[in-house]
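Appendix C reproduces, verbatim, an entry submitted by the partner laboratory led by Prof. M.T., so that reviewers can inspect both the input and the predicted structure.
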Amino acid sequence: MNLVFPEIADLRYKSPSQRIRVLSETWMKNEMYCPSCGYNFLRKLPNNSKLADFICEYCGEIYELKSKGSPIGTSILDGAYYAAIERITSNSNPNLFVMRYSVNVVEALTVVPKYFFTPDVLKMRPPLAPTARRAGYVGSWIMYSEIPLSGKIPVIEAHSERDKNSVLADYTRAVKLKVENMNLRGWLMDIMRCIDRIEREIFSIDDIYAFTDELGSKHPDNHNISAKIRQQLQYLRDKGFIEFLGKGIYRKTLISQCIRH
């Protein structure tokens, strides 16, 4: 995999953001494979496609690309808020590639499976002023820091490509958490975020119970938060994301321990 952006002789865009969009998308088309099935090519979709930037013609998975020339940080600029919410809650939500670049080199690339997105990952931006060209437009941020660590699968780290088989294996494990129902998915992602916030490899159920008030405020219609916590921990145990050691003690598995960029 060549990590240097391609040279495009007739690249006429003056806007830096437009130039980077063309360069990063061309790089993806030339170099990137499908993390879902391993097929060696992703086809670029037309520029006016609303839901995604690329498609794998073998398995049909679609992908959106977001690129930044600085550390990713806590958030990534996204499109119209209400359209983004509708997309996340539909069956056509794309997987997400997050690229960090410097000058003309890809420094890092992460893929986030679509099943790690819930409405609270999106944050509404203030409407544009009445004097703006797109007055009243309401954009959004993807709150990248709100995506559980197990959903951030590195493809390139620190200018170095990861082994393709390792990426495919991580993606396959992550997709085990596929939950279509958005309420159930929200609970699962919330519990995973709580686990991420516990810095120790081994933790107790009381460590998760410490988040009861926070979880209760996010799910006010649920009146038995402790039981829901236990249910989600059992689900994560069954899917191999945590290991039950007995007497209310758990261990994070390798994929849930990894620090993702």
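The first strand starts at residue 43 and ends at 44. Additional entries are available on request from the coordinating office.
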